[in-house]
Each structure stands twice: as C-alpha cells, then as structure tokens.
Amino acid sequence: MTVVDMGCGQGGFTASIAKTVGAKGHVIAIDDSDEYVEEFTARLERYGVKKRGTLVLKDATNLKSVVSDEFADMIVSYRLLEELRHPYHLAKIIKEMARIVKKDGRVCLTELSATARNKAEETYIRLHKESGDCFFSPDEIVEAMKNADLARVRKRIVNTDIWFSPGLAKQDLGFAQVWFDERVEKSLGSLIEKHGMKYPALQTFSGTKP
Questions:
Q1: Domains defined for the chain, CATH in brackets
Q2: What Cα–Cα distance (Å) separates residue 179 from each residue in 136, 148, 167?
Q3: Whole-model pTM above 0.90?
C-alpha cells in the first residue's frame, strides 16, 4: 500500500502510518517547510520505519511535478488545514488529494473541532486562533471534498482526553503544538493558570474516489 501524508510536520503521524502499512508499504510525506527535517528523520528512525518513508518538500496545493495522477492508495492528513496561509487553499489541497488518489482509494483528513466543551479546550483553541491558524467548519470541508468529486463523504467526531496541566501548558511542547511566550502569557496566562489546556474533539472526514 502507498500512502501520501500531506503536511507531515515532525513526522509523528507519518511514523504511525509507516508502521501500519508494513514492510511492503510506503509513505510519501509532504511538507512545504524544511523546519522539521531533522525531527522527521529522527522520529522515523526511532520507530524503525525510516526505509518506509520518503520526505518531499513541496507546496501541497501543487504536487504535479513530484506526484503523478492516481499514484496512491490513500491520502491522509492530520491537522493540515489549520496551517493554511490562505483559506482559499482549502479547495486546492482537497483537489490535489483527489487527483493523487487511485480509483476506489480514500482521502482521509483529521482536524481539531473549534467547538469547546470547557474552558481548557477554549484556551487551546484560542491559542491557535490567535496565532493565525485556520479553523474551517465541517460543512466547508465536506463541501470541498464533494466539489473535488469525492464520493461517500463522511464526517465523525472523535472525543479526546488529552489534558495539559498549567505547568505543562507553560512549556514549549512542539510535538503537541503547545507553546508559551510573552504574547501567550499576556493573552491567555490567567486562563492557563486556572484551567490548563485540553485538546478539543477531533473531526475526521473521509471520501472515496469513484
């Protein structure tokens, strides 16, 4: 099985997929920044899957020069959409996913919900919104997938139980996308001290190429 991981970052999700596909499978990991190359390589080595993963530094909105049509059995992404610089890139990235996946292959995305169920989740969401992250509504993501001619589009909510105590939330935890600096302290410091932070629910979206 060949899987493309869009927006791989430090490679945590890529390593998990590489273990899942097994020795005969392969993961093409896409990212537009070389910021985490060392972390990515080290993570795949740590989990013994370095030979199953290939890192490609390229903008995910246009991969035609490096990934051919109907190349992969599955396309996945984990929290990619919130990193988009421009909201209109949503449609472009989904169309690229649909182009790359094989007929009857699946496109699967996982994003954070922007609906907070408590103050700790509200603080985590605010941390990312105030840093400029995009939070698309479920309807926007589903519409983009349908407009890319993906079929049997489904969405579901997966509850989480990942908490950060005030002490943890005041650390720089890149792997969990938690950080604390002067700006965060000024904007959210009192909330973090009182409530800590918590991951909100995860939204998963899947569609099949007819």
A1: 59-116+134-159+202-208 (3.40.50.150)
A2: 22, 35, 12
A3: yes
